[in-house]
Amino acid sequence: MLSAIRDRLGADQAQLMQALALDPCDARLETQLLMAAALGVNRAWLLAHGEEMLAPAAAARYADLLERRLAGEPIAYIFGAKEFYGLMFKVSPAVLIPRPETELLVELALARIAADRPCRVLDLGTGSGIIAVTLARLRPLAELVALDVSPAALALAQENARNLEASNVQFIESDWFSALGSVGKFDVIVSNPPYVSAGDPHLAHGDLRFEPPHALAAGPSGRSALARIIAQAAPNMATAGTLLLEHGYDQGEYTRAALQQAGFHQCVTYHDLAGVERVTLGTVG
Length: 285
Ligand code: GLN
Fold this sequence. Notes:
By secondary structure, the protein is of the alpha/beta class. 40% of the residues lie in helices and 19% in strands.
């Protein structure tokens, strides 16, 4: 049955809202994004051409995309892309979907990476490479090393570095520090490790169901990756180097204490835009 674009969007917005318990604004935006992708147009075009009939081939493409979204697949995986810090990154189910709170980690790291001279920076568990690639582009004199235990994640991160012309990043397959070898000491180490507790009910809801569990969950307390990084970081750091860690809303106190115990000082926690403790840093030496 032929239908006008506007009517289709209206009906499907309601269906999506109900199926995924989205708020109306998100459901509207998502149906428009799916329709725009099926038609090969932008959202402005859609709004101006709402009265037009949907051609059968476009309707079929749209129906496929909508069906995937109705089954819960995250919009970022359907499109294979997600914006972070103003850059468009390729993503896949091999990596976590970039989240806005990680921009805080990038901002805090940027403030500690000199723009006018070389600086060595390590990104642990790089995933799609958003942190390393963003820092590399904004600090062209910095030398970055990005590591991940997952070969599929590393391949994607490398592709993002190529697409976004970040040539100052070296990629290494490594389970945290274990395969790092003697690449030297770092002035800044940054990580958004898995930090959700393995039993957290959120893992069974929404986008998280489709994301790689090893990139989200870290043992029963959610602290195992943070603990390992904190315990092993210092020998890999230059004098006065800074370690910056993203963590859960309730892990600030733990992270500060663990850093202090490992010999870090000036340990401070920063809040994200939602007002929760999100990034803790400490200085060594
Ligand atoms: N902030 C993410 C979430 O709670 C978790 C990201 C992570 O584990 N690094 O969905």
